[in-house]
Amino acid sequence: MKKINDLQATEVNQRPRILGQEPVSANAHQPNPDPDYIVQRFLFPGEVSMFAGPSNLGKSAIVASIAAHVAMGRDFCGMRVSRAAILYVAAEAAKGVLKRAFPFLRQKSGRAAAFGVLDMPVDLSDPELVRRFAADAKAFRDYHGCDDLVVVFDTLNLCMGDGDENSSRDTGRVLANANYLAKTTNAHVLIVHHMGASETSRPRGSTTLTANVDTGFTLHKADESHPDGTVFIRVNKQREDEKPAPLAFKIKGFEIGYNRHGEKTTVPWAVPFKPDSSLIESQTIKSANKPEPTLASRRAKDLLRVLTHLHQQDGGEWHKRKEVGQMSGEPFNQIRQNSDTMRKQVNAALNALLSEGKIEKAGDSVRLCAAGDRATV
Questions:
Q1: What are the C-alpha distances in Å from 249 to residues 58, 150, 233, 246?
Q2: Could you list the residue range(s) of the whole structural domain that residue 93 is in?
Q3: Which of these, 110, 127, 109, 122, lies nearest to 151 by C-alpha position?
Q4: Integer distance in angstroms from the first to the last C-alpha of the chain?
Q5: Which residue ranges of the chain lie beneath pLDDT 50?
Q6: Which of 23, 274, 278, 354 is the most buried (most CB within 10 A)?
Q7: Residue 314 shares a structural domain with residue 264
Q8: Both 65 and 113 in a single domain?
Q9: CA 340 to CA 137: how far, in whole Å?
Q10: What SS3 state is found at 348?
């Protein structure tokens, strides 16, 4: 009887651990109906995705389009977006990435976007290097005042060192390190890869590249019934949520000026189709009903983020209220098309920051308060 009592006491006082870790109780788990996301139903924090497509069909332009929408906190292809810092590892062509992001980030609303391009490969097969990279990536995210982070590796074959993409061992090691990066930084890690010449439904190389990712999507050219330059993404795998319908894009040229010979110069531009396109989901996702004070607080926090970023760039220049509103993120998306409502809500958010002493004003212009200064109300 004593042994039984001792065993019962041990079970009550100390739960058993397996290899040093306590198992999660499945019967006590309650799934979250509103999970965190980067792009709703598409990209999630703490996960790894792989985007594969043929060469010269617009992969990098589409990734730049996704990244720009996320960096600005703008809804994408009919899906909600949570603003995040973008760290784009451009192992293949950094200038090409910058050109493809330019059509979106050129406008004033892009000035406060956290979108950094790293002009070098990062060896995902090296665990020590990935640990160092993870620490730097978190510092990059925190510097830009973002809660979330997206890390893009473009492309896989240049970010796996001496590894062989056809080897399950080498690709498994790469994806294990990518998962480590995602989990330790709570980032979404997006890996860009190629398709094989004869295979149009999966990434080139080992099947591990399909099996060991959370989200897998591929790029395809639309049939002849659609305009030239039309391509679409098909989500083939989605662990976190239901798969979104195909996402359609028009790959076109964006005019940036003229060269020395008077010839028009363009850069590639991946323009998402409207949500009612026959290739993408037509159902509008309704926003959750949240208390107005919470929304007002989020809007004030977003404009403080904009002014903080501008202060880091210019050291204290004054900025018109309207310009600050143009650089706002997702808390203002639902009213952005109504200029009068947008103006009133931007003013309300800025006035809240003024009353808290976080910013100061001069006429119709505002700026971040310097340390120790008092706001002028």
A1: 9, 21, 8, 10
A2: 48-272
A3: 122
A4: 76
A5: 276-291, 372-377
A6: 354
A7: no
A8: yes
A9: 39
A10: helix
**Do 340 and 256 have their domain in common?**
no
- H-helix or E-strand containing 265? strand 264-272
Instruction: Of 354, 69, 81, give the one whose Cα is nearest residue 362.
Output: 354
pTM > 0.90 = no
- Amino acid identity for residue 115 in this structure: F
- What's the pLDDT at 13? 67
> What is the 8-class DSSP label of residue 79?
B
Bond before 155 cis per omega within 30 degrees: yes
Distance between CA atoms of residues 258 and 250, nearest Å = 23
Q: Please tell me the predicted confidence (pLDDT) of residue 371.
A: 60
* Distance of alpha carbon 210 from alpha carbon 252, whole angstroms: 30
Residue 86 pLDDT: 98
**Confidence at residue 229, expressed as pLDDT on a 0 to 100 scale:** 86
- CATH number of the CATH domain containing 343: 1.10.10
Contacts of 271 (CB under 8 A, 6+ apart): 65, 249, 250, 251, 252
Question: Hey, what are 223's tokens?
Answer: 């049939």
Q: What is the DSSP letter of 107?
A: S
Collect all residues with Cβ–Cβ distance below 8 Å to 90 and sequence separation of at least 6: 96, 97, 117, 118, 119, 154
Same domain, 208 and 263: yes
Q: What is the number of domains present in the chain?
A: 2
Based on the domain organization, do 54 and 148 belong to the same domain? yes
Does 207 reside within a domain? yes
DSSP labels for 179-240? HHHHHHHT-EEEEEEEBPSS--SSBSS-THHHHT-SEEEEEEE--TTS-TTEEEEEEEEESS
- Look up tokens 């006035």; give the residue: 351
Q: Residue 113: what residue type?
A: A
Residue with tokens 């600050």: 324
H-run or E-run covering 258: strand 247-258
Residue 259 is part of a domain; what is its CATH number? Answer: 3.40.50.300
Which residues 6+ apart lie within 8 Å of 203 measured at CB?
A: 50, 52, 156, 193, 194, 195, 209, 210, 216, 218
Grouping H, G, I as helix, E, B as strand and the rest as coil, residue 174 is: helix
The CA distance from 203 to 332, in Å, is 38
Q: Which residues pair with 79 in a beta bridge?
A: 76
**Angstrom distance (rounded) from CA 83 to CA 201:** 30
